[in-house]
Write the structure tokens for this entry.
Amino acid sequence: MTESGAATSFDQITERIDDLARVLARQAGTLERLADDAKARAQRERAGADVPLVVDLFALYNDARSFAATAASETERIAFEAFAARVERLLAGRGGQLVDPAPDSEFDALTMEAADVAAAADPSLDRTISEVIQPGLTAAGRSLRPAKVIVRRYREAAKDQ
């Protein structure tokens, strides 16, 4: 190999090494950004929800549901229900979660408050939800507002002696 051919090969190798160094530098920068994003996301998750905002949104959600229930027309009812659904999505996006138990589901003392008790004739319905009076709210792993529910209780009838 001639001296000029060796110099050309050396220049090509040097150029390729420089290209690889640039690629590695870009990949390292991308990895650092991804790691920083993951750390920031984890920090936000540890911090939990923006509780004051979630509580205000929950109040707005309840107002919208009340307005929908007492609307003067079908058009107003539909509009308030749509508004309540959007506020519910905002709640979820800010770390809040509605507690709106389905009828016949189990009573959970951590997220629900028994506003009233209804008699249950069937023992399998004991401590189940009869009706939801008002939904509740949880955020950051804790109950902020318990759902107000009517709970069924089974009581065996006293036997005649």
Notes: Helices lie at 3-47, 51-69, 74-93.
